[in-house]
Amino acid sequence: MRLLVLGAAAGGGYPQWNCLCETCRLFWERDERVRASSQSSVAVTADGEHWLLLNASPDLRQQIMHVDAMRPSQTTMAREGAKRSSPIASVLITNGDVDHTAGLLTLREKQNFELHATGGVHDIIAANPVFHVLDPNHVTKRKVGVGEPFKPVPGLTAELFSVPGKVPLYLETETVDVGEESEMTVGVKLTAHGKTLFYIPGCAHIPDSLKARIAEADALLFDGTIFVDEEMKNAGVGEKTGRRMGHMPISGEGGSLNAFDGAKIKQRVYIHINNTNPIWIDGSEEKKTVEAAGWQVAYDGMDLSL
Q1: How far is CA 10 from its chain centroid?
Q2: Which of 103, 124, 105, 126 is nearest to 53 (CA)?
Q3: Which of 104, 135, 140, 305 has its CA 20 to 30 A from that of 116?
Q4: Residues 92/143, Cβ–Cβ less than 8 Å
Q5: CA 30 to chain centre
Q6: Alpha-carbon distance 101 to 94, whole Å?
Q7: What Å distances lie between residue 211 and 208, 217, 220, CA to CA?
Q8: Using CA atoms, how far apart are residues 74 and 49, in angstroms rounded to an integer?
């Protein structure tokens, strides 16, 4: 099983286009300790030809252009018998957030693929008429139930499971149930060739059931949105805490940094990293802290083979 990180950043990317927080300022000043990152998405394959896209980032076109494995190829063209071809055979959406669905509009160009999501997420997509550009003659929509294994591409088995989260920002009302476990925010278990990988880009907290589920994973890509809970306020760019946004902090009480201590997880990677998060900075105390605890920080182009 091979996984490519197409985008490691949270919504808005790094740097955010209109932000002068301390972390973004380093990029605008061309500081060599930081590198740009597009918005969160990964691609996985079990055979090297058919790829599953996990979340469709608004930056998807740019990501395809920058990653050779995602480009049209003679192999896929011959297989599909058409001038238009793509290694992307399936797309799986983990929630209805803009940074995970907007990239579907990039895939409207008469390309055959399957679109997998829970019924609730499919309902969100169907309710927005702009997504009607996805031609049903080419895009097969498949509703996937939580806990039901399926094969999105040859050789790869996927299973969705609920994680604590919330509805997308644009669907929030005056009362928001943050931390609910439902089909609106899911993690993904991927299995191929005897290896198991978990992808959880958004998680409000870690219940014991989640710890047990991933205790012996070969790899875990986990929500690294913010380093401290009040990061947005401290940076002067927002008032919401990380937990209010549906993302637990890395550090502090109840943080994710040491939440999996004792688990036999072979590789631990933080992904979906907000522009304010100082783990973007090579040599920062925050990045040193996560690395000392056995975590890696995802970056665009990161290549994991299991």
Answers
A1: 8
A2: 103
A3: 305
A4: no
A5: 27
A6: 9
A7: 5, 10, 11
A8: 11
- How far is Cα 162 from Cα 184, in angstroms, rounded to an integer? 8
Q: Burial code of 215-244, b = ≥16 C-beta within 10 A, e = fewer?
A: eebbbbbbbbbbbbbbbbeebebbeebbbe
Question: Do 56 and 104 form a contact (C-beta atoms < 8 A)?
Answer: yes
Among 115, 123, 134, residue whose Cα is nearest residue 96: 123
| Closest-CA residue to 295 (of 227, 205, 203) | 227
Torsion of CA 121, 124, 128, 134, to 10 degrees: 20
Going by the DSSP 8-state scheme, the letter that residue 56 receives in this structure is -
**pLDDT tens digits, residue range 147-192?**
999 999 999 999 999 998 776 766 666 666 676 777 888 999 999 9
- For the record, the structure tokens of 265 come out as 């997880």
Give the count of alpha carbons within 13 A of 211, CB side only: 12
Q: Which residue has the tokens 């990029």?
A: 27
Find out whether 263 and 213 touch, Cβ atoms under 8 Å: no
- Sheet hosting strand 51-54, strand order edge to edge: 139-143, 113-117, 88-92, 51-54, 41-45, 2-7, 303-305
DSSP 150: E
Contact 276, 237 (CB under 8 A): yes
* Rama region for 85: left / alpha / beta (φ>0; ψ in -120 to 50; rest): beta
**What pLDDT does residue 73 have?**
73
The helix or strand, by DSSP H or E, that contains position 26, with its residue range, turns out to be helix 22-28
Name the CATH code of domain 2-301 (choices 3.30.420.40, 3.60.15.10, 3.40.190.10, 2.50.20.10). 3.60.15.10
Tokens of 97: 């957030």
